Amino acid sequence: MSGPADLRALPSVDQMLNAPAVSPLVEQHGRALVVDELRRVLGEVRLAVRSGGALPGKDGIVAALLSRLDDRSRSNLRPLFNLTGTVLHTNLGRALLAQEAIDAAVEAMREAAALEFDLDSGGRGERDSHLRELLCELTGAEDATVVNNNAAAVLIALNSVGAGRQAIVSRGELIEIGGAFRMPDIMERAGVDLVEVGTTNRTHAKDYVKAIGPETALILKVHTSNYWIEGFTAEVPGAELSAIAREAGVVLLNDLGSGSLVDLSRYGLGKEPTVREAVAEGADLVTFSGDKLLGGPQAGFIVGRKDLIAEINRNPLKRALRVDKIRIAATAATLKLYRDPDRLALRLPTLFMLSRGEAEVRAQAERLAPQVGALLAPSGYAVEVCNCSSQIGSGALPVDMIPSAGLRIAAASGSALEALAALFRSLSRPILGRLRDGALVLDLRCLSDEAEFLKTLSEVSGDAVA
Ligand SMILES: *Cc1c(COP(=O)(O)O)cnc(C)c1O
Fold this sequence. Notes:
4-stranded antiparallel sheet; Aspartate Aminotransferase, domain 1
C-alpha cells in the first residue's frame, strides 16, 4: 500500500460537504464552521496517511468532524454538579438564583421595561428606584444604591467620600479577598490615603482617635470574611467606632462583604453580622455583595446616609459600574423573598442547600452509593459513603464547617484517581468533587437532581477509564 495512491482517494472538502451525513451539520452549525473543521480533519488525515496511517472511510471522516463540531459548540459555561463541598464557590459562579429571580430576569431580557422611565409622570426615571425601597425596607437604611459588585461598591464609596484625603483602617482588617481585591490596592485606586492603625491582632478605640486629623475623611471597617484571628485579640465594635466617627465629624464606612439580610442562626448556621445591625450601630455607609449569602445575582449594594448616597450617585464612576436591567430585575425578585423569612430556606436555593440537615444528605449518599458503585466498579473504582464538612464559601463564616455526607471514590493508584477526576470534568455535565486523602470525594450537600446525576455518570463506560 503506497501513501500517494491513498491520498488521491481522499475526498475533497466539496465532496464531503455534499455527503448526506454532512448537510444536516451545515444546517446546524453554519457552512463556514463546517468547512473550517472539515479542512482541519482532512489535513490531519493527510498527515496521518503520509506517516503510514490507513486512509479512513467517509464515515470515519464524518465521525471526526462531528466530534470537533461538538467540541466547538460545547460551552465551558455549561451547568455542572458542584460537589466540592463549598456551597458559594466563587470560581463556580456563587449563588444559584431562586425561580422568582430567574423568571424576572427572563422577562426583563425579553421585553422592554421602564428601567429609567417614570410611568407616573411620563418623564425620566431612575435605575436605582427599582431596588432602593426594598433595600431600605430590609436594612433600615435611609437610602441605597447598587453597582456591579461589592468590590465596585467599596471602590466608589471610598472614592466619593475620601478622594484626596485619608481613610483609617485597622491593621487587623487589611484583607485580601481572592484574585486582585486587596484593600490597600483598592484604596490607592480610589485615590484615598491609607492610614493604618493598631496591630494585626489588637486595635483599640484610642488608636483610631489618635489617628484622626484634619485630613481624615473616613474610618473604614472591614469584615474579615475569609479568616479568623483567634487568641489575644481586640477590635473596636461598630457602635463604638460610630461614636468616634461622629464625634470627629468623619464618615464610618463598614464593608460587610457577604452581609446577610437575616440572622442565619434561625437556619441552623453561624451568626454573620446583618446589614440591619451594621446600619443600626450607626455606620454611615454599609457595603455588601448580592451573590454571596444574599443568594442573588452578582451586585454590590451601598446603603446608608442620604447625602452620602447622593454623592456616590453623582460620581462619574457610577455610570461605569452600574448594573443592567436583567440583574436589577433578578435582584428585586430576590430581595422580595426576604419579606417572608419563614419560607426563605425553601425558595432561595443557596439557603436551602446550606440548611440541609446532615441526616438528609447522608440518606441521599446511602441511596446513591450502590448505583454509583455499580457504574464505576467495572473500571476498578470502589465507592463508599463518607463524612464530609461543607463550607459556606465566598468569605462567610470562614472557619465554620457544616457536617455533611458524600461518596468516597477510591482507586488503585493516584494516576487512576486523577484520570477519573479528569473524566468527570469532561462529562456533558461535569462533576466536580475534591481530591482528599487519596480519594475523590463528592460532597452531596449541593446535589438536587439525583436522576440527572446518575444519567450523567452513565456516560462513564467501563472502557473509558480502564
Ligand atoms: C467578598 C468581599 C468583597 C468583594 O465582593 P465581590 O462581591 O466579590 O466584589 C469585598 N469585601 C469583603 C469584606 C468581602 O468579603
